[in-house]
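Following the same procedure, sequence and fold were stored together, as reproduced here.

>
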Amino acid sequence: MWRINTRLTSGIVLISAASLAYEITLTRLFAVQQFYHFAFVVISIATMGFAASGLLLSMRKTQPAPSLLAFCFSGAVLIAYITINKLPFDSFSIAWDARQWWVLLLYFSVSGTPFLAAGWAIGAALDAAGTDAYRPYAANMIGAAAGCPLALAAIDQLGGEGAVGLVISIGILAGSLLLDRKHDAIPLILLAILIVAIFSIPIQPLRLALSPYKPLSSARLANDARLSVTDWGPTARLDIVESPGIHSFPGLSLNTTADLPEQAGAFLDGEGPLPVTHLAPDDPLATEINERLPSSIAYSLRSSQTALILDWGAGTPALFALTRPGISVWLPEDQPMLTDFLRDEYAAYNFELFAHENLFVIERASRSVLADRARSYDVIEFALSDMFQPVTSGAFSLGEDYLLTVDAFTDAWNRLNADGVLVITRWIGTPPSESARTWNTVLTALRHACVDDIEEHVIAFRGIRTATMIVSPQEFSAAELYHMRRFLERNAFDPLILPDLDPGEVNQFNRLPEPVYHELFTALLNEPGETVSKYAFRLDAPGDDKPYFNHFFRWGQTPEVLASLGLFWQPFGGSGYFVLLVLMGLMLFLAALLIVFSLLSGSRTHVAQRPDMQALLYFAALGSGYLLVEIPLIQRFTLLLDHPAQALAGVLFVLLFGSGIGSWLSPRLSLKRALLALLIYLGFILSFSSDLIDLLLPAPALVRWSALVLILLPLGTLMGVPFAAGLQRLENNHPGWIPWAWAVNGAFSGISGVAAAMIALDAGFRATLAAGWIAYALAAKSRNLQSNGLRGGIDENIAVKQKYPGGNRDTIS
């Protein structure tokens, strides 16, 4: 019985909380199992599942019992997890194995089915409430908001598998609450507790299976490899593998004769290894190896007393920095869970590295530390801890990296002492890509800082696998350049850029047919605009508004990428960017089907005329606008909140909670004024959010989280008004068409989820927010849902009585 009462409202809160907790958990599972969290895809799948529920609502005169839909949600989550776990999607072979497209389609289908069940329950409650739809919609938003912190807490305490079990259990609890026979609830509650326990252990069949191409999976295949640690945190899963086959010293000179020490490998979300080195800083072997590493020259070029090391992996860069007598080394804390393990469980292995008297851990993330104007350093090192990735085709385009942006390098430049040194090491590839883009980003930061005679302040050189760039506010002296040349010769590193470089010095040790790296680095130094515009793929400098360092794709590459499809051992055969186009095409196709069929089936018993194009535009604009605002805010606030998982949960919590408030207040507010206020406030966010985030970066975590609430809660409240108010107007003018509006809103949300990712990649977050503003402006333009067929008053009451003969809108079977 769909009676709008406290019990049903509480059930909607639980189902909504479980749905959002499942959504966030799914992004964490994908991050560990695959190579990206796919948050925008998960959000699109969720909204498209809700859209499909609108079609089912339109097709049926009576709806299933709410308890049944809650149980279906739990069953669908279980089936989805088992399918994803036992039938891993192989993104690497999809280019030549057509079966993987069917597996991908199955992934989307089973992942979206729980959202279909949840959306059906919520949509049926909206339909049953009629003109009071704002009440269950507010409960839906408040419950969804609660699911955000619940997901992070569950992953932290129960692990990824345990979080899945908790989501299933919450669905069962919602179903037991909605049962008419109360004595049936006790066995279901016990079942829910048992499921949480089984998933939290977890038993072997329920353990998350990783893609065989994840670095963690490969590392475990080595002889004598032993997995010593597996632990989940709210933002990452940590695994540590001990294996004699792990040796990671990026950039190490080929002239090295030292015996390399034993290392363990730390993996975050299956990516790595981040080497944990079994060596003490005062061991002569550490000094010997350090002198063969490219970054070591930054510490010996000038007198260095303080160093800040960013992206320090599992401590190895700090180990080698501490071989310098008297130096103090500072490390930001980007992964607290990893730091804790290195301090405790692996303290003996790393010779108490984190108890060293000259090593200091700052309990803030890297960008927050760089923004702190109270500190300055003699050396700032951007260490190389990422694994090598062939990035030219765009296969890894989607990952944000806020450490490799113009803004990050500018902050680092401003934190250097007058004679300080900034050093960055990156991988080199053929043709030049990652290292060249880093070089252009560094040069762009220097131009923004109005540095004169840049060529006098920069040095670049390469080994066989890496390129290292050195920058200083003070020009390099003749003595320092002599010291640099001796270092390069001793380690067989080739100079790329020196203030007094002779052409005969290049390409001497790691010989290439042509000195392409030297030529490209020189061109980027002297003619950056023309070089970047004419290069085969993107070398433009990424910024905080568009932090996609690995997005190298240009449309001019299309023939080349299609011709080489499947020839590269990369996700989606090297065609990663085109997958977005395929997803967009799929979303458009599904949205068209759902909207048309819900419109056709919606006329089954309705005496009211169909909603016109104005109503379609209104609900489509609201669905599009919400995600075109939500997704870039999640990505933008990742910088402020330190990690994508925290940003996803935090932004969703505040926006959804605010939307719940706005929905509840909607009958008391003017829709026209609410939309106008939304456009004004969204314009404020669009204009000033970047500046506010930059201002708040150095602040303590409590201040940053409080600012998140203060900034986004009013926005969420205003965003919650139009949909609830629109449903009320729609029911007044077109009784029974709420399921259609639910389908339209969800369908366009699914489209805009993928659209948001595409706009952000090519135009940035601000452009994506601007698209959201335009969507809400269209909603404001089409807000009048009054139809010529029904003008309210007596005609409206007659229509409602004809559809619901008993006259009670809240008692639909």
In short: The chain has 26 helices and twelve strands.
